[in-house]
Amino acid sequence: MSIPKSVTKAHATGNDFIAYLDSDGRFEPTADEVRQLCDRHFGIGADGLLRLTKPQYVADLSEAQVAACDDGDAEWFMDYRNADGSLAEMCGNGTRAIALFAQRCGVASTQVGEPFRLGTRTGVKTLRPLGDVAPYGRDVFRVDMGSWRRGDLDAFTVTIPGTPGAARGTFVDMGNPHVVCVIEDAMSTLPRVEDLDLVTKPEVSPVLESDQNAEFVRVDEIDAAAGAGEATMRVNERGCGETLSCGTGLCATAITLRAKTGVDHWDITVRGGTVRVDVTDETVALTGSATLVADVTLI
Question: Mind telling me which SUPFAM superfamilies this protein's record contains (predicted)?
Fold first, then answer.
């Protein structure tokens, strides 16, 4: 097996991962190994695998991507794989989980506000530990998720096989593709957020070549004077199915809600907890907790 015998189970608002340190590039996983470990019945069980390594040890990176990590002062890289073994461009919740894991490994500072620069397939992300912050939980990190791109509002039609109704969706590129549906409004005939069956993969029209993550969101409250809002979201992730949280999906949701309401700051509740998303014209930041659950010795 090309995975070390000792790994760590972690999660960030319920989006759970298997993490390990590979400081010298000896442990690049195969797709089969990722699938086996992430299987919830025959393995440890997780939404994905996080390999904390150096950029030069990631086989699929180009020379330009490695150089960008060097230019961005990112010594460490998050090599993320979905539970089905496929490579993933980015995982917002994964950055928080791997930052906490990096602290434990002694390669990231635990000092509040001290930046940790992490290479990803979508560029260098800067994380800052904030400590314990209500209502977001313990070991909270703020992640500068970088730039974003949004398509036309409500340009897609989204259905869920076996579920009556449809919703309009908005495309958001967070380095990985998302289609965000605001439901429980006049443009949606889908059931309530809580009643959706997201075991079945949603269908999006027109079809995206890259496939997509699909988010379903309800606006719960808006304080226009404060420029803040609250919402509830569920998500079906490509390569995983429904997860309890999706960091890039939370960002895509806030970007879509901002376009519809003009509100920049959102507390969004997912099945795994509550996070904060702050959107500007050019960037988006994600704030939420991370947890290390257990160390596991593979047999």
Answer: Diaminopimelate epimerase-like (SSF54506)
